[in-house]
Design goal:
Layout (H helix, E strand, L loop, with lengths): L1 E6 L7 E5 L2 E6 L5 H12 L1 H6 L12 H4 L7 E7 L10 E7 L7 E9 L2 E7 L3 E7 L4 H8 L11 E3 L8 H42 L33 E4 L24 H6 L6 H13 L4 E6 L8 E6 L12 H13 L8 E5 L7 H15 L6 E5 L3 H16 L7 E9 L2 E8 L12 H14 L3
Parallel strand pairs: 3-14, 3-15, 10-13, 13-14
Antiparallel strand pairs: 1-2, 1-4, 4-5, 5-6, 6-7, 7-8, 8-9, 11-12, 15-16
Length: about 475
């Protein structure tokens, strides 16, 4: 399990958000659901680790004032694992950002934990750092970090690095270089001292063989042999090795598509080309057909080329019964769910994380329920996919819980799943964790606002 942390960030104050195998983000508009997914996107992206800027690769997601709460001069995002992860990543990270106005936020303070080694960097006109071995448990170390005012937490030692390396990746690389250089200097001194001792003993032994009665020389003690400082995790600084994003507003269908492949986008612009290149007997093609039949949306999705040339344009057609109309001539829900299902069902993404924003958009209840069933199946072994799902659909969650209940009754694999219920309390966003029992039931001690939220929805549906 991973816990996300937000502080002074878009209305979240000192907030810990556990992420289970499957987490459904539920609540009214403007309660922070999308803000949480934005924080996850930034922590996962390369840009924040490379140059220390709060952005998603080349995409600027906002200026400092868009994120800092109530005029605060800094905000924090971070995470910690509940169990040690891969040796190529950090088990905990806390990043503090500062800035002003519409400027992209920059890192002010960085704390990292790996293999019981704590690293702390404070970035101002220069970079200062602290390093501590044998840290407490991962969670205990992280909770100690968040009690420290990052504005005042200057490090005790100077790190020799250039401003261009002020991102966490550059800073840890500079520390590794600095420690390695010091190690080799100390090793050179150790080797010279040992050679001097060996030479002194050789001279004394030679003199003894020649008849000298000179007593054995008293040699100065050798300096302690330095230990190699080791390496810091250089590759996956982010807490999710791979994550797929799907936006709530997805690409509109077209009558035809040319041969130039669209680049990947969270809106799914690239999906028609993915389907075009998909072999008819592939596992993904079979699973897409199964979802179509289960949801009642289609029997199959086909591509047809306009001509025999390899780069000829093509169209997407939807088979339903005996008809195969163009994608633009069927219900809008089909074009909107295809990016979701093509991504979620992809067997190449085994073990990946998925952040889905309103995947049920434009789907009727049967198709929404089928979506919940698919999410459950993809979270099981051997797929082992993990989901963050922002949703307003009871049908998705209820079908997921039904499958949990059925699996529990049959003594099949259990999942850790939860609802994260968001609400606005005064000027703050609050998150309530509501974990499902192994049989898919909600706990009895649900937040009052959560019960009222769904009661109001049910009454509205009944016309009251």
């Amino acid at each position: 399990m991973i816990t996300l942390y937000l502080n002074h960030f878009r209305g979240f104050e000192d907030t810990f958000i556990p992420l289970d195998d499957v987490s459904f983000l539920v609540g009214e508009n403007s309660t922070g659901k999308t803000s949480v997914l934005t924080a996850v996107r930034v922590l996962w992206s390369n840009a924040v680790w490379i140059d220390g800027r709060f952005r998603v690769n080349d995409e600027v997601v906002g200026g400092f004032n868009d994120f800092a709460s109530n005029g605060d001069k800094w905000f924090q995002v971070g995470y910690f694992r509940h169990e040690p992860g891969e040796k190529t990543g950090y088990d905990a990270a806390l990043l503090t950002f500062t800035g002003r106005g519409s400027d992209v936020p920059l890192t002010l303070d960085v704390r990292l934990l790996s293999s019981h080694t704590e690293l702390h960097f404070h970035v101002d006109q220069e970079v200062r750092y602290d390093k501590r071995e044998e840290a407490e448990s991962i969670e205990a170390a992280f909770r100690a970090w968040v009690k420290v005012d990052p504005w005042l937490a200057e490090g005790s030692s100077l790190l020799k690095t250039s401003p261009s390396a002020y991102g966490p990746l550059g800073i840890t690389g500079a520390l590794e270089t600095q420690e390695s250089n010091l190690y080799y200097e100390q090793m050179d001194a150790f080797d010279r001292a040992r050679e001097a001792q060996d030479e002194a003993m050789d001279r004394w032994q030679k003199a003894r063989r020649e008849g000298s009665q000179e007593p054995k020389p008293t040699l100065p003690p050798l300096p302690a042999r330095p230990e190699h400082p080791g390496r810091y995790p250089p590759t996956t600084l982010g807490f999710m090795a791979h994550i797929e994003w799907l936006a709530p507003i997805r690409a509109k269908p077209r009558r035809s598509y040319d041969s130039v492949i669209e680049a990947y986008s969270p809106e799914g612009d690239h999906i028609p080309w993915r389907l075009h290149d998909l072999p008819d007997r592939s596992k993904l093609r079979q699973d897409l057909r199964e979802y179509g039949r289960r949801s009642g949306l289609y029997d199959d999705v086909e591509t047809r080329k306009f001509g025999d040339a390899e780069d000829a344009p093509f169209e997407l057609r939807v088979r339903f019964g005996g008809r195969t109309p163009n994608l633009i001539n069927v219900g809008y829900g089909v074009s909107q769910v295809l990016p979701v299902m093509t991504t979620v069902l992809d067997p190449k993404l085994q073990g990946a994380w998925f952040a889905l924003q309103q995947p049920e958009v434009h789907l009727h209840p049967r198709a929404q329920a089928a979506l919940g069933e698919t999410l459950f199946e993809m979270a099981l072994s051997p797929h082992d996919k993990r989901f963050l799902v922002e949703t307003h659909s009871d049908y998705v969650i209820d079908r997921f819980c039904y499958r949990m209940r059925k699996a529990h009754k049959n003594k099949e694999q259990a999942l850790r799943a939860q609802v994260l219920f968001f609400e606005r309390v005064g000027d703050k966003n609050v998150v309530h964790r509501i974990p499902f029992a192994p049989d898919g039931e909600y706990p009895e001690d649900q937040p009052k606002a959560f019960r009222e939220f769904f009661l109001a929805e049910q009454l509205q549906n009944l016309g009251y």
